[in-house]
Amino acid sequence: MGGGVHKINKGGKLSIHTDYNKHPNTGHRRKLNLLIYLNKDWKKEWGGELELWEKDLSRECVKILPIFNRAVIFDIDNAPHGHPVPLNTPENVSRFSLALYYFTNETPENPRGVYFIDDAYIFETSKLK
Q1: Pairing verdict, β 81-83 and 14-17
Q2: Who wins on pLDDT, 102 or 90?
Q3: Which residues of 77-92 are buried (b: 16+ CB within 10 A; e: fewer)?
Q4: In angstroms, rounded to a whole number, what is the distance separating the alpha carbons of residues 95 and 67?
Q5: What is the maximal distance between C-alpha atoms in the chain?
Q6: DSSP 3-state assignment of 46?
Q7: Helix, strand, coil percent content, the chain, rounded in steps of 5
Q8: Which of 34, 68, 86, 114 is most buried as measured by Cβ atoms within 10 A of its Cβ?
Q9: Mean pLDDT of 89-95
């Protein structure tokens, strides 16, 4: 396991990227990301949506607003993601998330999809290839 709290201030962004998948010390493969958003009263016009893209970066598949208590779980194999549009928040508002990473020593399989949980529903995006 690994992870931490992420804080992004006004004007901040995270370019679309693919996460590393091998732990530098143990050699275990990073398999899953779990993001939990900690942003009470988040306004859509502030932006900050997590974008999940096709592995070949041909198109965005999903945008997920970082609202309070929303959880996103995804297999990191061939899963480009980020929030490339700079935050448009007031000066005193930041975007917070808790990130947890799951590592395994198993051989990777083909990713089955991306899941996010919202208000007790689980959505699957199987368009990621």
Answers
A1: antiparallel
A2: 90
A3: bebbbebeeebebeee
A4: 9
A5: 45
A6: helix
A7: 0, 45, 55
A8: 114
A9: 97
